[in-house]
Specification:
heterodimer, A: about 375 residues, alpha+beta, three-stranded antiparallel β-sheet, B: about 325 residues
Amino acid sequence: MSHPLPINNQESFVLNLGPQHPATHGVLRVKLTMDGEYIMHAEPVLGYIHRMHEKMGENRTWAQFMPNTGRMDYLSALSFNHCYAALVEKAMGIEVPERAEYLRVITVELNRISSHLVWFGAFILDLGGFSPLLYAFDDREHILDLLESVTGSRLTYCYFRFGGLYNDIDENFVDGTREFIKTMRERLPMYHNLVTKNIILIKRIKDIGPISKETIRKYGATGPVARGSGIDYDIRKNEPYSIYPEFDFDIPVYTECDSMARYMVRMDEIEQSMRIIEQALDKLPEGPIMAPKVPKILKPPKGDYYQAVESARGSLGMRAVSDGTNKAYRLKVRSPTFSNLSLFSEVSEGMLLPDALALMGSLDLVIPEIDR
Amino acid sequence: MDSEIIRVIAFLVGVIAFAALNAAYLVWLERKEAAHIQRRIGPKEVGPFGLLQPMVDGIKLMTKQILIPDGVDPILFRLAPILAMIPAIMCFVTIPFSQELVARNINLGLLMIFAFASINVLALLLGGWASANKYAVISAARAVAQNVAYEIPMLITVITMVMITGTLNLNDIVAQQPNISQWYIFRFSASPLMPVAFLIFFVCSLAETNRAPFDLSEAESELVAGFHTEYSSMGFGLFFMGEYANIVIGSSLAVILFLGGWQDPFGLFPGVWWFLIKLYCLIFTVIWIRWTYPRTQFYGLLNLSWKILIPISLFNLLLTAGFLKVF
């Protein structure tokens, strides 16, 4: 429901949402100019968790920057790993063995599911339902255990190497992943019964927070936010990388443009990611997991390189300019939620505060990735 | 000493103890129940099954410093928590726990409860206003709009009940429901819509007590802690106790009006235990609802009241009047 009356400028006040506010998931601050409960203007204020990752990329050697990538988006760290590894491999012309590519896809997709599960729980938490969060975290726990067994860490992964992977998987991982997919297939209908079909939830997010195609294009929003507005754009299909073309999977697209559409896109993506993982496990080839001849000291030839991957939140791009030394001359990260957040100001104008928070939740913001 | 004075003191102490104990142990119940709904264990460290946890929490609350921020209205800020608690305790005076166990069996008992219960919203408004905090003011405004909207269908339903029972004396109302077929929720001879009337009453009591899914005034994802954002120590504690006391009163009224109060469902052993069993079943449901559903949106909440509950309860009122006239 948007503001029905012309907004009276004299009766407005400023409400600070954050940086320490339960709604903003981290240290995002939104300066809201309000007329009663209607938002006249919303201004996201960033920078509270800026750590200069991009500058660090210029001060460290190519390999030393790898752990940083896992610390930008703490919910889908492997996508950042993947993007950076693929970028440097492209610059150096390193061929990645097939088995390593399969394992990359399996772990990235697992990470995508876990990221969507956290989003699902946190989104319902924003809407006042506490319990689904705990169920989502229960499922996510299985993924974290699986990923821990191969990558060695649970959140800020640093698993990929230039030319391959740090560690091979074992039988337990394969069995555990198949077991997880089986339980997740049973849990998804439960989530839909408990949450998606709930009349209160439907009233809260259906037709709320409409983002038009034009707005999406204007701000360069990607990922589930764009796909919820009817834009069929997914890097995995549109600019294929790694071995995604070998798998049969769909890109869920909804044309309703509301928060419900974004919700459904993510819920369907969980299913699609499971399909990819299943196919990858079935076809998993034997072989090495590291390219044979990767130089110890990387010095990519002079040039300008760009690599994009589809992270859980949208199109993630990294651009590196190399001057032929062992450090990047310039490293730029294009993070998806930075663009997704920028449309919040325009879309939330005239909305009620709780609706705007539902909209913000549906954008799936991860603040350390916006600020970097 | 006069036996009447002893009686008054005994009931005063008893009612306060009941209210405080309920507030403390409903928190425990809420935490345990939420934990089991969410596949956790809940409090278990302090005492067996965490049963001493409420005591420890109480001690913690009482030993904290009461912070009174600059810029608040000093009198109203202190008055609001007291205003939240006292009317809640006053409401217990007329509630019949059993045929004999009632502090004051007043003929206007039902009216008195609603008179005192509506002071609660004033406490929320004063607390929010006096805090000089934007979140608190928004929350207080929400609480008032919500309470005004839901008082109407609730009172219409109560008027329907009074028409059927012909009395405002709560003990008499319970006496009219000696077994399960006579409970007013199933008294189809009075009106075929009695279960609906119970549902309306129950939903309204949820909304009146600001419980989920109608807890808009305490929406933590929007308004931090709502009207008690600035309260610490027992200021917060009193608001908290008042809230739980109001849940107990709302559920008690539902039990008395619709579920036969202290009467045995089979007409065998009426007594205080039946009242408590029914009461806690209802409270269990209230908590269950909170941990299952997300929060409603504000216009959804008002639409529910003005477009659904009020028309239905008015229709029920007319239908009941017709039934009473015809039969």
